[in-house]
Amino acid sequence: xxxxxxxxxxxxxxxxxxxxxxxxxxxxxxxxxxxxxxxxxxxxxxxxxxxxxxxxxxxxxxxxxxxxxxxxxxxxxxxxxxxxxxxxxxxxxxxxxxxxxxxxxxxxxxxxxxxxxx
Length: 118
Known about the structure:
Elements: H1 52-62, E1 67-71, E2 76-84, E3 88-92, E4 99-102, E5 106-111
Antiparallel strand pairs: 1-2, 1-5, 2-3, 3-4
């Protein structure tokens, strides 16, 4: 910066202390957007149960949909769901015995397309 003979600053001086930068003097946390501190905020773990299994069982139970239940030992059981709870389901079949099956013994289940004509 150059000063005139009378102690005033010259016009057009590119570096002038008369102007402050708009962000000077502001705390660092302002105007910088949202920042994650300490590694960032994480979402919680997803729920252990979504309710999809229960909805599927209830829908097929109410409609008495013929089902095939594949057990963990690869045996297949055919029938419709009469009752269920947290740990087991009851399968009714055309011929007794009707079965109570623990859910932990079920590999998967699906609609029985062949057995739809009871």
